[in-house]
């Protein structure tokens, strides 16, 4: 009888251990975390142009996305390319700040993610 009890308990313990380590946490389950969700990420490089203008080249480092929507923070039309460039005016006397927003979407399930950063352009 003792052997059959061990033969029953051991597989049950093994199954419980596998189940414990293969499931997501309760927090992840409640929040609906999906490790394939799009994650918005970007940075930029700048280049001075003639006439008090600044060219900003945006570099997209997003993951799990196939659609992009850029808001350059200056009232210009939105841009839907992966890595756009944009020209900003440069003031002679005051700094200006622009809120840059990148929204990325995974078109397979419609999930999206948004990231914003402030671009400060100092006087020339």
Helix and strand topology:
Elements: H1 2-22, H2 26-31, E1 42-49, E2 53-60, E3 67-71, E4 85-89, E5 96-105, E6 112-121
Antiparallel strand pairs: 1-2, 2-4, 3-5, 5-6
Report what the structure shows.
With 124 residues, the protein is an alpha+beta fold. Helices cover 22% and strands 37% of the residues. It has two helices and six strands, in the order ααββββββ. The strands form two sheets. It has a three-stranded antiparallel β-sheet, with no helix packed on it. It has a three-stranded antiparallel β-sheet with strand order 3-5-6, with no helix packed on it. β5 and β6 (112-121) form a beta hairpin. The longest helix is centred in the N-terminal third of the chain and has 21 residues, at 2-22. The N and C termini lie far apart (88 Å). Mean pLDDT is 84; it is low at 17-26.
